[in-house]
Design a protein that fits this description.
The chain is α+β, with helices and mostly antiparallel strands. The chain has three domains: 194 residues, 2-Layer Sandwich (Cytochrome Bc1 Complex, Chain A, domain 1), CATH 3.30.830; 188 residues, 2-Layer Sandwich (Cytochrome Bc1 Complex, Chain A, domain 1); 227 residues, outer membrane lipoprotein receptor (LolB), chain A (Clam), CATH 2.50.20. The chain is built from 19 helices and 25 strands. The strands form three sheets. It has a 13-stranded antiparallel β-sheet. Strand 15 and strand 16 form a beta hairpin. Helix 11 runs antiparallel to helix 12. The termini are far apart.
């Protein structure tokens, strides 16, 4: 009987409890759990280096992050110096070559990455002494070998060339220039001139000035105790000599008045990259930082429910993604909103982005939006605590920015306290809907539509590196397309008139050129040989040479009437149809020789353009019956030589692929020919710098290569 009473009591309580639940209402959110994050005190060595230890004994691994917090300084006419320094730091020590150093790192199964601010390295705990021996030698006795400096400098120059084909990179550069100015560290631009200004002595001076322990933090994470860590730093880093104190520079910022439109012409683009941006005076740990993170989550912080995504993707179908960010920084923070949009909706997209920025600045968000974003941020924060690196980052930030010790422990509580009123207040304080820099990288055809967004009803043109870009200038009287093409061809054959050119051309039937390009990603070289024969014969052989592979990756051949191609992994194909017809056209010794007689072409002299500070005659070449492919050729006003050629081809769907070829280092070969000895090819953000190793010129157009035999 007693058992029955107990059972009935339980059932009654359950039924009553069920009856009291209103299923039509969402349950009230529970308060966030208390988060306990132990921020360790930093151990400070006599040389000034601060050491932070985060214990995690789940795996027998230890990682070491060295971060040198020296004052950020502008690099001026040597912009790019710190980036080259960071790469060169990994190139061995005064007692050990780069190869020997790398072999020792690999032997113990460790990983190492260096930067201008230090390094990150990790290994199994049992290898910690060997790893620290290498790391301490690297930071106290770096080698900075001339050969590696030259290699890294050359690679940086090659990478710069790829910017012209990367709309996102262009947008980032121009956004930095207009937000911060070119004299600010965040706005200065690395270009060919600044890279060439950097010497190995500059690298060594940079090291002795900035790479000092009194500005260094060493964060140790993993299977290590506080006592073990103290023993490590005393053994391996105590002898690192303290450097001089550095003065923190002060920089002024441009004052944006009204909305300003900056446009960069990206020929052939079917999409526009839009970045609507301004600086924000927000330091890490500021009391408003959490509220601004919530505000950004609602505006465009990444989820599909954010306003920018819901409006421009889900509702308008203008884009695959539209995002925003509001970020703090020790010098100056920033705001950004935008994405990539189809040409025909570029102006409409800007209208909607501006609308959403203005709306969130003037009106309260909804309860649902606030709850959703706070819940998402709570979950993300809780998940991040599962990684020891997160606690290490929290510890570094707490000490570096002098934050309260409970800043991260109280994060969820402070997040929960954020109200709609808080968001309206911070939006009014930090967002500037009427003082924005609107940066657009896209096709020239959309530029005129952007004037309405500019306070002065004008579009401010920029080049790829953020310099003011003048519109094309008219060519001087007497300069024609014919004279430009003649000057180029006569210059290459080192003659002064058409009669001499024709006489010399009659004695030339074959030009064979061999190139080599370093490919650091595969630790080898790309070898290319081209064959050009009179009147339309051609062939190309491309091979890879590396420790892991020596193979033909691509070849093409045409004997004047037939030919084909081969590509590794794709096999061989024959030229047919339009491809065959294109190959049948005469092209020797230059395609320019036939421009004005080929009735299938439209060749137009557009005017004088300025690229990288140099004046060029800009010529457009297009086939009359093919709107999906065209090219621009740039002939130096000073020398008459062809220095750049950019070709645009529509690929799958609406994507336009651009290939920019830069010809340089024209030389007198000693045989009466003046030809380029470098050819920099870049496309889709990738660049290859080919250097001529040999040029052979023969009277007869005979070569087995034209038959596909190399």
């Amino acid at each position: 009987m007693k058992k029955i009473v107990v059972v009935l009591t339980i059932l009654f309580a359950a039924v009553c409890g069920f009856a009291q639940v209103d299923r039509t209402k969402a349950p009230q959110p529970q308060p966030n759990p208390e988060i306990k994050i132990a921020i360790p005190d930093a151990l400070t060595l006599p040389n000034g280096m601060k050491v932070i230890v985060v214990e995690n004994h789940k795996l027998p691994k230890v990682s070491f992050q060295l971060f040198i917090d020296y004052p950020i300084a502008a690099e001026g006419d040597k912009a790019g110096l710190s980036a080259i320094f960071g790469e060169l730091l990994a190139c061995g020590t005064t007692s050990m070559s780069k190869d020997a150093f790398d072999q020792k790192i690999d032997y113990i199964g460790a990983s190492l990455n260096t930067s201008s601010r230090g390094f990150f390295a990790s290994s199994l705990k049992k290898h910690t002494p060997q790893l620290l021996t290498l790391l301490s030698d690297l930071i106290m006795h770096p080698a900075f070998p001339q050969e590696d400096f030259d290699r890294i400098k050359s690679q940086n120059l090659t990478n710069l060339a790829s910017i012209a084909t990367d709309a996102d990179a262009i947008s980032g550069i121009v956004g930095g220039v207009v937000n911060y100015g070119t004299t600010h560290p965040y706005g200065e631009v690395t270009n060919e001139t600044t890279i060439n200004n950097i010497t190995l002595d500059d690298i060594k001076t940079y090291y002795s000035t900035y790479f000092t322990p009194n500005y260094a933090y060493l964060v140790i994470v993993g299977d290590v105790t506080q006592d073990e860590a103290k023993g490590y730093v005393d053994t391996y880093f105590a002898s690192w000599q303290k450097g001089n104190d550095l003065k923190k520079p002060v920089y002024s910022l441009p004052q944006t008045k009204g909305n300003n439109v900056y446009f960069v012409d990206k020929p052939g683009a079917v999409q526009s990259v839009i970045d609507i941006t301004h600086t924000v005076n927000l330091k890490p740990g500021h009391p408003d930082e959490i509220a601004l993170s919530v505000l950004n989550g609602i505006l465009g912080g990444g989820s599909f429910s954010a306003r920018l995504m819901a409006n421009l993707r889900e509702d308008k179908a203008y884009t695959y993604g539209c995002y925003s960010s509001i970020y703090s920084d020790e010098m100056v923070g920033g705001f950004s909103a935008g994405g990539s949009f189809r040409n025909e909706v570029t102006d409409s997209a800007i209208v909607q982005i501006l609308f959403e920025i203005d709306r969130i600045s003037k009106n309260m968000v909804t309860d649902e939006e606030l709850t959703l974003v706070k819940s998402s941020m709570t979950g993300a924060f809780a998940r991040s605590l599962e990684r020891p690196e997160t606690v290490a980052r929290f510890a570094l930030n707490t000490i570096r920015y002098n934050l309260p010790k409970d800043y991260y422990s109280s994060y969820l509580k402070n997040l929960e306290k954020v109200t709609k009123e808080d968001l309206l207040r911070v939006a009014g304080l930090y967002l500037q809907p009427n003082h924005l820099n609107i940066v657009v990288v896209g096709n020239q055809e959309i530029a005129e539509k952007l004037k309405v967004f500019d306070a002065s009803n004008a579009v401010h043109y920029k080049d790829y590196f953020g310099n003011d870009k003048a519109q094309l200038k008219a060519v001087p009287s007497g300069v024609t397309l014919q004279t430009i093409l003649d000057n180029y061809m006569f210059g290459a054959f080192m003659v002064s008139d058409k009669a001499a050119f024709e006489a010399k051309l009659a004695k030339v039937g074959l030009i064979q050129t061999s190139y080599v390009a370093d490919v650091p990603e595969m630790g080898g070289k790309l070898l290319m040989t081209t064959y050009e024969g009179k009147p339309n014969k051609s062939a190309t052989l491309m091979k890879v040479s590396s420790p892991d592979m020596n193979a033909v990756v691509q070849k093409e051949w045409f004997n004047g009437t037939a030919g084909g191609t081969f590509a590794m992994g794709a096999g061989s194909t024959k030229y047919e149809g339009d491809e065959l017809a294109a190959k049948m056209k005469p092209s020797f010794p230059f395609s320019q020789y036939y421009y004005l007689t080929d009735e299938s072409l439209n060749v137009e002299l557009l005017g004088i353009d300025v690229v990288d500070g140099k004046e060029y005659y800009k010529v457009k070449v297009a086939e009359k019956d093919n709107k999906d492919e065209f090219s621009y050729e740039f002939y130096s006003v000073e020398t008459g030589m062809l220095e750049k050629k950019e070709t645009f081809t529509k690929g799958e769907g609406e994507e336009v692929v651009s290939v920019l070829v830069t010809f340089g280092d024209y030389k007198d070969m000693g045989k009466g020919f003046y030809l380029p000895h470098t050819m920099l090819i870049n496309t889709q953000g990738q660049a290859l710098n080919f250097v001529v190793s040999e040029i052979i010129i023969k009277k007869k157009a005979k070569s087995k290569a034209f038959e596909g035999t190399f």
